[in-house]
Write a structure and sequence with these properties.
mainly beta; PH-domain like; 8-stranded mixed sheet; 8 strands
Length: 122
Amino acid sequence: MAISLNQKVLFTTKANSFNSGIGNKHGNILIGNRAFEFYNDRNPEDFIQIPWQEVTKVRAQIYFGNRYIRGFFIDTRDAGTFNFVVKDAGKALKAMRDFIGSEKLVRNKAPISLQNLFKHKK
């Protein structure tokens, strides 16, 4: 049985984790006073726990002219990068900001921008 790192959970929502090589995992994220946690709906023993001191950066995936937040990437010191698509991503980022600080929340840079693709070169 998985044991939560948090003493108090402040925010929870549905999410998909895209960390495995094939497909995604549907579950719930819990944002609490000690860690970010993801628990798979199908297998409760399949979980991700990231303590706040391990988080180096959270990169938000923002689309449609800053009107829609799809999800975010969490970069950690030792475990690498985790990709989550979240139902209430804006609220989740606001809850995380209290624990990691505003300086660690950044926008994710898109690899290809349509604006730059069709720009005329002078």
